[in-house]
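INPUT
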Amino acid sequence: MSKPIFELVDELPTSGLTVSLLNALDFVAPGEWQNTVGFVNTIKTVTGETDEDLIQAIGERAVYLFNDKSQGYQTALWLYQTVDGTDKALGAAALANKVGETIPLLGFLNSITPKPDKAQTIDLTLKIVVELVAFCQINGIPGDSIGDFVAALGEYAGESLIRMVALICVDGILPLGPDFVQKSLAFLSSMNPQELDQNSTFKSIKDAIPGNGIGGKIDFIGQSLDSVQGWMNGIVSANALTAQKVLNNISGFLDFADDKLDYVSAFLDVSTNYYEHTGTQTLARRLIERAVAEI
Amino acid sequence: MNLSRGRRILASLLLCILLLTTACAAKAPSRFDAVQQESTKQKSGQAVSKNATQGSKLNAFFPKSEDGYNRVYTQEKKGFSEANLKKDGKVVAQLAISDTTSTPGTASKYANSTKTIDGYPAVELGKTQTSVLVGKYQVKVISKDPLFKASEREDWIEKFDLDGLSKLK
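OUTPUT
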């Protein structure tokens, strides 16, 4: 049983590494993301309503919808949480070592290890697949309808858009370069299924990925990646995104030496939970939008 | 002897108070606690009725894109379908049809309605919502932009195929 949805939204932090990271990426999607936290506050923000009885009714319907397992909201949240794999202890230690406005990366070089490209590619592709599956669980388009998902990507805004921007920057460009999608596709086509099967995140979420057996699931992952590549490459080229440009913006809250760039992405990967954070916000928004229409 | 016993009692009392207050502080009561308890008595099916119409069957009754307004479907669940209404790339309103079989309270609020739109009982709710009841379905238009007024919500409700929807079982 998940925690109550109102608690999850109430407990979203207003500061910390995840929030700093997402704010630093605002340059890609200016003004798109406001860190809306608190369940009642989210209801007010999403609906524009202020009457307390009405807010209560909307919230109660949203709680009902979330708690009905057949509606898929809990599965979506679990996927967002599971794919993040955050090391919360490291994140807390980093904040404790904060000097002035920035966190020195130097103190953490021993506790983080840059991932080989293969592992990084698996991470990236699993996050994309989770986005697709969670989107369908929340919005109800059948779980294998990649075409609808791609059409809906054009509608991505707010917390959903900044999540995709963070995915492109932190899990794509920083570790793999601006051609991260092509690299990942090439890797997938030559991947030994066992390599995927041994990945701990894949092990946890594989039942939620469409496709028969490991081969079918790899095909689905490849199709997902293939279908979002145009959209993702569009964001990269429209903003002329490079690793250096991303790093310049991240250096506002993280202090690192230029020869340790590998470590920046590894550090952000384990110390932030941007998927869970913005995923909870996306879920809350959709629940509330449905609740207000149904009451 | 008596004094130290008294102290011990006092100490244990203080400890109890400390534990009680910190336990309470750890989790503040929420205005949604009651509904949380009520809605977790069963794991599945408590929010959406088994007999509710599939969202895919509701899509056909939505207004089409027109006059610079673009309709984009956003949610399609059992008993519910929703679309964004966009103008110049901005969401100005949301359009929704829901099956009130799952939410009996929704249908009953029309009992006191004095207003109709296209002959169907209508209700205005809060600052942003206008809806009609068509058989067991609620059709609602929700403003997402303050410039999208109640009169426009009514206009867009009329653009739904309400008579067609009234024949859907």
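end of record. The CA atoms of residues 53 and 59 of chain A lie 10 Å apart.
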